[in-house]
């Protein structure tokens, strides 16, 4: 039988893990709560129905939102080579969830069985499209100034032209930079930022209608549509599952 190193951790709301690297790749599955992974390229968000992949030797740090139970599974370099070369977030299928829970549980496993299960996990991830709740970080100083303003106040409803005047850049220039540097439009980026903040507010127990209002959506329907497009379920369903997991 093989006893594994510590593979579970409990984190309180707002608790962080300082920047660090891993010799092997690492899968982090928040069985409850929300976990963010941040690098110099941006931030990835994993609610309780996602798993985060971090490749070997990739500096990053984490922060928990809500009481977060994290399951951790190391993936050796040879096996991890089949996964993305930068952090990614994947949806958790029923099979993937059960395999992760067994691998990170208290039960002692035969070495061959452990490796077989770990292979199943990797195969499931390879067959699952990445579902990144990923907010890229800009390099251009003008674009970073705009995104910093929105990070400070996600509910800010200023147009790109108004934000441009605040940082000394034209709307046309900023629009181009959002596409070339971040691979999305200004409106897509701001919507994703708000959805990330919504995940945190919902895990803290805030009502859906209040979350929509506090984060700047014009009406709850717009919020529900944007949230569902990114997360794959309505905010109400997501909040209900959070309550069920904590019972």
TrEMBL record:
Lineage: superkingdom: Bacteria
Keywords, alphabetical: DNA-binding, Transcription, Transcription regulation
Pfam families, alphabetized: AraC_binding (PF02311), HTH_18 (PF12833)
InterPro entries according to UniProt: AraC-bd, Homeodomain-like_sf, HTH_AraC, RmlC-like_jellyroll, RmlC_Cupin_sf
Domain HTH araC/xylS-type: 144-241
Endpoints of the signal sequence: none
CDD domains: cupin_NimR-like_N
The protein, known as: Helix-turn-helix transcriptional regulator
